[in-house]
Amino acid sequence: GTPWFQRRRRVTGESRSLRESQTRLRYLSEGARDIVWLRCRDCILDVNQAFTSLTGYPGSLFVERGLGIWLELAHQDDRADLAAALAAAAAADRGLDHEFRVVCADGGLRWFHVRSAVVTETARPDDPLIVGAAEDVTDRKIAEDAVRGSEQVYCTLFTAAHVGIAITLLDGTLRFGNPAAAELLGYGDVDSMIRE
Asked: What is the pTM of this model?
């Protein structure tokens, strides 16, 4: 067999390599703007400082309560969909991909896009690690709402205008028109005008 001192050197080397990997992971996750966590089964092994800076809650809360913390912090209108997404991910032993609002410690709301993935290449295949990240998408959601609002204003102005407005392709094919254009061109309604 292998002498004990060679076995010890190999184990010590593997332990050192593991510590170095964990240190690199810590540096990467702490430098991230997103919330990053590591989970094994139902146990949260670690969460980065972004959880505290983005939600106002201590990271220890995430570690203590596990993924259930998302349900606790989620806006009440988002909880049912989030619970279903979490249950589906757990039942299929797969990652999560879901957006929802979180009520922060200061009472404000933030939108998060949460993704997680199962890490299959681990030392213990029976206990796969799951890496998760929660991206703050609040600014994107605000921009989407603003675009939706301006589209509604445009649609209202376009439809209510007393002046005929029509949009055509270069070949003259009519793409859009308002009721005033349909009336001006002698059609009963906009759909009839566009179909012809």
From this structure: 0.68
Name residues whose C-beta falls within 8 Å of residue 76's C-beta, 6 or more positions apart in sequence.
Answer: none
SS (H, E, C) 104-124: CCCCCEEEEEEEEEEECCCCC
3-55, pLDDT tens digit by residue?
Answer: 544 544 544 555 666 566 666 666 666 667 899 988 887 788 888 999 999 99
Assign residue 74 a region (left: φ > 0; alpha: ψ between -120 and 50; beta: otherwise).
beta
154-180 residues labelled b (16+ CB within 10 A) or e (exposed)? eeeebeeeeeeebeeeeeeebeebbbb
Burial of 51 (0-12, 13-18, 19+ CB in 10 A): buried
Is residue 133 within 8 A of residue 34, CB to CB? The reply is yes
- Sheet with 35-40, strands from edge to edge, namely 43-47, 35-40, 129-136, 109-119, 97-103
User: 132: helix, coil or strand?
Assistant: strand
